[in-house]
Amino acid sequence: xxxxIIGKSIGEIxxxxxxxxxxxxGEILVADDKEKKALFFLRVVDIQYGQEGAEKWGIKTxxxxxxxxxxxxxxxxxxxxxxxxxxxxxxxxxxxxxxxxYRPKTLPSHFCAVRRAGKEDYKFxxxxxxxxxxxxxxxxxxxxxxxxxxxxDLLPYHIGIFxxxxxxxxxxxxxxxxxxxxxxxxxxxxxxxxxxxxEGNGGKGLKHHPMAEERLIVYSxxxxxxxxxxxxxxxxxxxxxLEDIFIFxxxxxxxxxxxxxxxGRKWLVELYEKDVEELAEIFDRRIQDITFGVLKxxxxxxxxxxxxxxxxxxxxxxxxxxxxxxGKVVLIDTSGLYEYEELLVSVVMARKILNYNxxxxxxxxxxxxxxxxxxxxxxxxxxxKDGIFAQIAREGRKFKVGLCAIxxxxxxxxxxxxxxxxxxxxxxxxxxxxxxxxxxxxxxDISKLEKEIQTLEIGEGLITYPGAPFAIPVKIxxxxxxxxxxxxxxxxxxxxNEKIDDDxx
Amino acid sequence: MGIExxxxxxxxxxxxxxxxxxxxxxxxxxxxxxxxYAIDGSSVKLFDAYxxxxxxxxxxxxxxxxxxxxxRGIEEIKIDFIFAENADAIxxxxxxxxxxxxxxxxxxxxxxxxxxxxxxxxxxxGISKKSGLKDGNIPLxxxxxxxxxxxxxxxxxYYEIDDGIYAVKFHPYSRFAFxxxxxxxxxxxxxxxxxxxxxxxxxxxxxxALAEVHKLVKIGRxxxxxxxxxxxxxxxxxxxxxxxxxxxxxxxxxxLEG
Lengths: 505, 258
Prior knowledge:
The complex is a heterodimer of chains A (about 500) and B (about 260).
Chain A: E1 3-9, E2 12-17, E3 28-33, E4 38-51, H1 55-70, H2 80-83, E5 84-97, E6 100-102, E7 113-116, E8 132-139, E9 142-150, E10 159-162, H3 169-183, E11 187-192, H4 212-215, E12 216-220, E13 228-229, E14 232-233, H5 239-245, H6 250-263, H7 267-273, H8 276-282, H9 289-303, E15 308-309, H10 317-325, E16 329-333, H11 339-361, H12 364-369, E17 373-377, H13 388-395, E18 401-407, H14 415-418, E19 423-426, H15 432-441, H16 450-454, E20 460-464, E21 472-476, H17 479-504
Parallel strand pairs in A: 10-18, 10-19, 11-16, 11-17, 12-13, 12-16, 14-15, 17-18
Antiparallel strand pairs in A: 1-2, 1-7, 2-5, 3-4, 3-7, 4-5, 5-6, 8-9, 8-21, 19-20, 20-21
Helix pairs in contact in A: 5-11, 6-7, 6-9, 7-9, 8-9
Chain B: H1 3-15, E1 25-27, E2 35-48, E3 53-65, E4 69-74, E5 78-82, H2 87-105, E6 110-114, E7 124-128, E8 134-135, E9 138-139, H3 140-151, E10 157-162, E11 165-169, E12 178-181, H4 187-195, H5 208-217, H6 221-237, H7 242-248, H8 252-257
Parallel strand pairs in B: 2-6, 6-7
Antiparallel strand pairs in B: 1-10, 2-3, 3-4, 3-5, 7-12, 8-9, 10-11, 11-12
């Protein structure tokens, strides 16, 4: 037992902590109510000093200590175990009675004993956990042997990963992808602008995953053994794609739409190949030369990219969609590309995937058989404004297309768009503005978890999603260890099968 | 007297100089170890029916060494009816008698009691946080402490005020000197041993065991309210009416103050 409840209300429970106990912010404790035969789950949101006696006693005692220190006089503070204590302020998470979880609508009994929760106490959580495992349940800094995962069904309802640099975003994404690879039934598209996912950046990467050979498909502008070439045909690029990555004036936008209207899917190639004079003539000089001049320079930049091809048939986008639809993790390495190229790949792929699934939607039978697809976007605040990503955020769920937005600045994303994201992975976030925007958009009440979010260590996080009993604290697996464990499991499974075979014969 | 006048009067008291015999102040060394009993009592008036009053009292002791409390002996709260006009004084006497009764059962170590001793008791030492001893109108302990600190700064010392009555400073940096009633021999040894209990930083210069037993026996406001409630509740269950009880313990002051 680590404490006894002393107050206070449905929204906040406080208890006196035993002197010898060391409790940390974010710990989940249980008030074991023998009278009500219920377990009340409490999350520590703040810790304060307490003492028996008046406040001035503490001030006087500290003053005497200072005086005696100065005089090099020995002193003691007897019975401090009883006289001094801490007050833990907790947010009630709910209670479990007869194996069923209820929201916090009642109070535990007076002076109810508080203890640390054991693995058995969390049994009720199992049904809330999904198949894409990402870590273990966390209580404060301690990991509890209860697996935490998100449900694959929630992928089209979008995921946000929010963390300051260095708090473990890449590790989380690797673990997430590793779990998805293990399941083999979700299409995950990862666009990797930093080249950190495949090789692993010093540690292990997705290529070290025991199932990488079957379930990981990699595309890169520089193909090599086991890595496919990334190719996009100019015919696949729409005006809307360009509007998502460049800023155009109204006149330029009109010209772009006029080009697309005139040349159809070939508009970019025509813009690139024809000279300004020729284009001006085609449009009866209704569009100024200077406008075409600017657009042509943009078109040249795009067409000169090593991944863009003039030939309509040279493209890997359809293959990528097929890979995703067969439940693979697809990694596109854009690390050698310019930012505009990386963004172009993202928007072209996102639009193609959404349109593909939209078309498939009419065929109910076929549509119901395809897996959910998740498109990850790094530094999501760059593109989550308008355009294809905003469109997917708003309507993707209907077409089984979800976004996984990774950002360290959620405050730069429109609140309306953020509210479309049902699952939040919140890792350490230093900026108050970022925390505030998440508070108002999360699907669980995290208003009292300010201190916990501030004090999250690397690899620690909170997950919120609809249906979860409360914001789930998680210690994210360390990717290298996680896949090592998977390898051992795989070896054990194979050995077991061999033994069975030996016995059989 | 107005505020100005009152301040002048206070200043006069604090500036009063009384010369004591320096040789009467005796320095002593503190011991590092020891074992003592500390006894205290507490009481509270629950009801006042004018012709009689109802009190709750609790007494107890702790046995401690210089580091920690080794044993706690706290008695149950007793309810006592006192039929007298000076009920408070009688209640105090009864509480002291109860404390002495505990003290007489204890042996083998020094026995400290909170307050001054009304009579000589072998092996029992009374330590008073406050004393009514005065020189003229000025509290005597205040004057002795002031003088003692001047001639023996940062030392433990004692000064014999009268036969068996001392002013003692148990810690070099204590803010207070206490009245100590002790009628036995080896005064210096006894005070040296008590001093081993006086370096708790939360009550420097006062034996921590006495502070501890004080907390344990204290009948707080909540305890008193609960006792009142229990008494009335049980009385009603046994057939008394609320009106009867209210009439019995009716307090006109409460009525006036709303």
